[in-house]
Design a protein that fits this description.
292 residues; alpha+beta; 3-stranded antiparallel β-sheet; 11 helices; DNA-binding
Length: 292
DNA sequence: GCGACTGAGCCGAGAACCAA
DNA sequence: TTGGTTCTCGGCTCAGTCGC
């Protein structure tokens, strides 16, 4: 279990009932899709506005997707979330990762606010669903929770592999992907299926503009079922996030001709370059190895 | 490759309990 | 009193498996 360090929850005074700019409720026109409540999109927008991330991307270490290197690789926490169909837990984790860029890497908010970010407006079932999602993330040591001010829950982010208190990526060579805020602004969090979201993160973690997505290899490295990989890729292509980018040819004894091929994909704007961190990262060797 | 089947586990709803 | 957490229940979805 990871422990929080120097916990400094982001105090959202705007959620106080006496405030006229609360995240909890908004009576203004055009922002509520359930009577008297802020819409899902506006709630997320207001949460992202509080983020300290000036580059509007969320750094997520690749150990969240995959632990280890080369032949010693094994699936990361993403596999657990996908296999146990914890889509809401994944959604909340990504949002927590986006907002906890400041000191303490924690955030204090009403559970009903988090519930709205995943599209649940009923107070009871929303709180229940959020609680279950926090528990799933705590079981993976991805977060810790504590009672914050005004009975709200303080969520503190841990390392992406659950190894301890969170530290931002700093070392040159440390591998991470960058999730753009457009993920929420373009509505991908509602458009994509869980499989699509998983494959989107995996695509963002690729270190080339054009890359293969071999079902068997993705399944082996990231622990997703091949069905999930296939449906995730289809989901991304259907939503115009991933596009075919020709074929890659390689030598193989498995084909009579001695030459095999596999399709290449590329991420479409605005995600196409944002997935390439600036320094210290190289292509994942096994992914580009010919004949795989 | 495809469809049918099965079991695991998530979902919302409701209730009880705990904490501030 | 209010809000969060945890548990139970019935319904439902989906990953995995099997046979064709």
């Amino acid at each position: 279990m990871c422990d929080s360090i120097g916990m400094t929850p982001i105090q959202n005074t705007a959620t106080k009932p006496e405030s006229g700019n609360e995240i909890g409720r908004d009576e203004s026109a055009g922002t509520s899709d359930t009577e008297g409540f802020l819409s899902q999109a506006r709630t997320i927008e207001m949460i992202l506005e509080r983020s300290a991330r000036t580059n509007r991307t969320v750094p997520i270490r690749r150990v969240f997707l995959q632990l280890g290197e080369g032949r010693d690789t094994e699936p990361g926490a993403l596999k657990s979330l996908v296999s146990s169909r914890q889509e809401r837990a994944l959604d909340l984790y990504l949002l927590v990762a986006a907002i906890t860029g400041g000191p303490g890497h924690s955030v204090t908010e009403w559970s009903t606010t988090w519930a709205r970010t995943i599209g649940i407006f009923d107070q009871k079932s929303g709180a229940s669903a959020v609680s279950r999602a926090w528990k799933a993330l705590k079981d993976l040591d991805l977060i810790t929770t504590a009672r914050g001010s005004q009975r709200r829950t303080t969520v503190t982010k841990c390392m992406e592999d659950g190894s301890g208190p969170y530290e931002p990526p700093a070392n040159v060579g440390e591998k991470y992907l960058q999730l753009p805020f457009e993920y929420w602004e373009e509505g991908l969090h509602t458009k994509l299926t869980l499989a699509g979201k998983a494959m989107f993160l995996i695509a963002l973690a690729q270190r080339k503009h054009k890359f293969p997505l071999v079902h068997a290899r993705i399944s082996e490295w990231y622990g997703l079922a091949q069905k999930t990989v296939a449906s995730g890729i289809d989901d991304l292509v259907e939503n115009g996030i991933l596009a075919p980018a020709g074929f890659e040819y390689f030598d193989t004894l498995a084909a009579r001709s001695g030459r095999g091929s596999r399709p290449l994909y590329r991420l479409v704007r605005p995600f196409h370059q944002r997935g390439l961190p600036p320094t210290g990262l190289e292509a994942f060797p096994a992914q580009t190895e010919a004949g795989k």
